[in-house]
Amino acid sequence: MDLSLSTETVGDRTVVRVGGEIDVYTAPKLREQLVELVNDGSYHLVVDMEGVDFLDSTGLGVLVGGLKRVRAHEGSLRLVCNQERILKIFRITGLTKVFPIHTSVEDAVQATD
Amino acid sequence: MATVELLFSALPEHVRTARLVAAAVARRAGVDEAVLDEVRLAVGEACSRAVGLHITHEVATPVRVTLIEEEKKFSIEVGDDAPRPAPLDLASANGSERPAPGHEDPGADSEDDMGLAVISGLVDDVEVTADERGGLIRMSWPIAPATVAS
């Protein structure tokens, strides 16, 4: 399965819904999307990963890159993920301490801290 | 000792194929279903790393994946033909060793480190070596005891 991306504005947040597999082949598309959003002035991003079937370190690198970009504008990047196999990768790499990870888009959109 | 060998051109789009083949062979060999996600991720990381090294060093040969079914374990070897000195020591994955200063592409190195970190976090039995040909990552998983067919 390839990568699918869609965006939606909710209040001052931009929700990026990601589906499919994020790997060395597809991660550049996600990177382009995040860069484009930040360049267009969207600094508070919520990346909904509920539709993601596979995530590897290349995908993690893109998310970390996105976080760095929004932080340069005092923005935020929150993740939505309930899938244990995806969460495990964040735990292994210690990135659960770097990304706020929420259980629903609604929760992530309302979060302020 | 049953083996399946896979050679693929060092292109990112083929890494998914390697993951699918590795998971299919691991399942057939009797690797626990609960571990198959780890097998898929680990082989994907090793292949992504090999593809990155081949592209960086402009190596034209294919990446080699060998899937080996033994009596009590299932092993995967991912070999690259990239010239050393790429940091191959697993110690470099946790940041205790840094690449030499002046390395051409620090971004590629950090992703490479993250890939090895994921592999070492996922797989208990992993060995990273290098010889005159290139680098080799060998990973093994136990095979679940065969269940009696009903």
Question: Would you summarize the structure shown here?
Answer:
Chain A has one domain: STAS domain (Transcription Regulator spoIIAA). Chain A is 38% helix and 32% strand.
Describe the structure.
Chain A is an alpha/beta fold and 113 residues long. Chain A is 38% helix and 32% strand. A 5-stranded mixed sheet of chain A has the order 1-2-3-4-5. The mean pLDDT of chain A is 96. Chain B has a single domain, classed as Histidine kinase-like ATPase, C-terminal domain (Heat Shock Protein 90, 2-Layer Sandwich). The longest helix of chain B has 21 residues, at 36-56. The two termini of chain B are 26 Å apart. The chains are: A alpha/beta (113), B alpha+beta (150). The A-B interface holds A 21, 23-25, 54, 56-58, 60-61, 85, 89, 92-93 and B 12-13, 15-16, 19, 37, 40-41, 44-45, 48, 51-52, 110-111, 114-115, 117-118, 121-122.
Helical stretch count of chain B?
3
Strand content of chain B: 15-25%
Helix content of chain B: 25-40%
Shape descriptor of chain B: globular
Name the chain pair with the biggest interface and residue counts per chain: A-B, 14 and 21 residues
Domain tally of chain B: 1
Distance between the termini of chain A: 35 Å
Order of helices and strands of chain B: EHHEEHEE
Structural class of chain B: alpha+beta
Low-confidence stretches of chain A: none
CATH class category of chain B: Alpha Beta
Which bin fits the share of residues in helices of chain A? Answer: 25-40%
Count of individual domains of chain A: 1
The CATH homologous superfamily of chain A corresponds to STAS domain
Widest sheet, order of strands of chain B: 1-2-3-5-4
Question: So, CATH architecture of chain B?
Answer: 2-Layer Sandwich
Q: Biggest sheet of chain B, open or closed, and with what strands and sense? A: 5 strands, antiparallel
User: Strand-residue fraction of chain A?
Assistant: 25-35%
Keywords (chain B): Kinase, Serine/threonine-protein kinase, Transferase
Organism (chain B): Streptosporangium nondiastaticum
Protein name (chain B): Anti-sigma regulatory factor
GO molecular function (chain B): protein serine/threonine kinase activity
